[in-house]
Write a structure and sequence with these properties.
This protein has 151 residues and is an alpha/beta fold. The chain is built from five helices and five strands, in the order H-E-H-E-H-E-H-E-H-E.
Length: 151
C-alpha cells in the first residue's frame, strides 16, 4: 500500500490552513485613521502635527498595523502649506519620505481670502492639494471615522 498520498494530503491541508490563517490575520489587521488640524500660523503647532504623524507611523508600523493620515490647514495654519511663507517645508518633505501616504490639504476659502487681501496669487507647496473648505474636509474625514487631533 502506497502511503505517499497521505503525506501529500497532509501537506496540502497544512498549506490550506496556513492560507486561511494569513487571510484571517489580514482581515483582523486594524487600519487607523487620523486627521491633524492646523488652524493657526504657528510653526510650533505645525511641527507638533508633523511629529505626531511621524510617531503614529512609527508605532503602528512596529505593530504591523496600517495608518492613514491627513493634515488639514486652514485659517492662519495655511501659512504652513504656503510655498512662500512656510517655515516647515523641509520637515514636511522629511515626513513624506518616511510615509509618502500622508495627505496635506490646504483650505481654498482661506487661500482665496489671502489672495484678495494680498492682491496676488498664494502659492501652495506641491506636496499639498487644495480642498474647497478646510472645515468641510475635517467634517468629511471625521464622518469616515478619522480621529481628530489638534496639536
Amino acid at each position: 500500500m502506497d502511503r505517499r498520498w497521505m503525506f501529500k494530503w497532509a501537506a496540502a491541508g497544512a498549506g490550506l490552513a496556513s492560507l486561511v490563517a494569513t487571510a484571517r490575520a489580514q482581515e483582523n489587521k486594524k487600519l487607523h485613521k487620523i486627521v491633524l488640524h492646523v488652524g493657526f500660523n504657528s510653526e510650533e503647532s505645525m511641527k507638533t502635527a508633523l511629529n505626531n504623524a511621524k510617531n503614529a507611523y512609527e508605532v503602528y508600523s512596529k505593530l504591523g498595523e496600517e495608518v492613514t493620515m491627513e493634515i488639514v490647514a486652514n485659517s492662519g495654519g495655511l501659512h504652513m502649506l504656503r510655498d512662500d511663507t512656510s517655515p516647515v517645508k523641509e520637515q514636511i518633505r522629511e515626513l513624506l519620505k518616511l510615509d509618502p501616504k500622508v495627505a496635506l490639504s490646504a483650505c481654498n476659502n482661506t487661500k482665496t481670502g489671502m489672495e484678495k487681501k494680498e492682491g496676488k496669487p498664494v502659492p501652495i507647496i506641491s506636496e499639498a492639494r487644495v480642498v474647497p473648505a478646510g472645515i468641510v474636509r475635517l467634517a468629511e474625514l471625521q464622518e469616515q471615522g478619522f480621529a481628530y487631533v489638534r496639536p
